């Protein structure tokens, strides 16, 4: 047995399921997962917290359930982020940190530090990736499609049917 072994949330759920169903004795469970009996007792003790955390969001690969210290800032920042992404706006890390500072000031929290570590945990907590929104991932404007089709059909009418061929795009 390791001196200290950190178990991810999905394994804790499996352990709790085995304890509840009685599939294995507690001793067998500690042997199977190579954990101390006190660790098993702690997992059982915090069953409600583990279940609540999993119901609130996916914590499968995380090892600890840590709540945000400034949840109100994160909620407002997440709402802003979703609005910006729905408008196909690329958002960089420094921009998110700056917006978090603005939100903290508007809420009245003066001691908030939007560090790189905070940003990393925020992005991990809400599964936000920092890739550029570009190319075919952007939505196409429906008005542009309609205008182009009108233009295309206007050009097409000027040709005979025998002069029109199919073109296949290869990528």
Automatic annotation (TrEMBL):
A molecular function (GO) term: DNA binding
Name by which UniProt lists this protein: Tc5 transposase DNA-binding domain
Lineage: Eukaryota, Metazoa, Ecdysozoa, Arthropoda, Hexapoda
PANTHER family according to UniProt: PROTEIN PDC2, TRANSPOSON
SUPFAM superfamilies per record: Homeodomain-like (SSF46689)
Keyword Nucleus: yes
Organism for this UniProt entry: Popillia japonica (Japanese beetle)
Keywords: DNA-binding, Nucleus
Domain of life: Eukaryota
Intracellular or extracellular location(s): Nucleus
Domain HTH CENPB-type: 61-132
GO cellular component, one term: nucleus
Gene3D superfamilies the UniProt entry points to: Homeodomain-like (1.10.10.60)
């Amino acid at each position: 047995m390791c001196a200290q072994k950190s178990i991810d949330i999905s394994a804790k759920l499996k352990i709790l399921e085995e304890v509840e169903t009685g599939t294995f004795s507690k001793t067998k469970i500690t042997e199977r997962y190579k954990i101390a009996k006190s660790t098993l007792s702690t997992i059982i003790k915090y069953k409600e917290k583990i279940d609540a955390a999993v119901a609130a969001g996916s914590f499968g690969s995380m090892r600890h359930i840590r709540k945000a210290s400034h949840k109100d800032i994160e909620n407002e920042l997440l709402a802003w982020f979703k609005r910006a992404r729905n408008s196909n706006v690329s958002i960089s890390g420094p921009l998110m940190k700056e917006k978090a500072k603005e939100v903290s000031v508007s809420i009245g929290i003066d001691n908030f530090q939007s560090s790189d570590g905070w940003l990393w945990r925020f992005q991990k907590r809400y599964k936000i990736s920092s890739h550029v929104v570009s190319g075919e991932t952007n939505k196409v404007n429906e008005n542009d499609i309609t205008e182009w089709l009108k233009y295309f059909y206007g050009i097409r009418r000027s040709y005979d049917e025998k002069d029109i061929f199919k073109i296949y795009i290869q990528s």
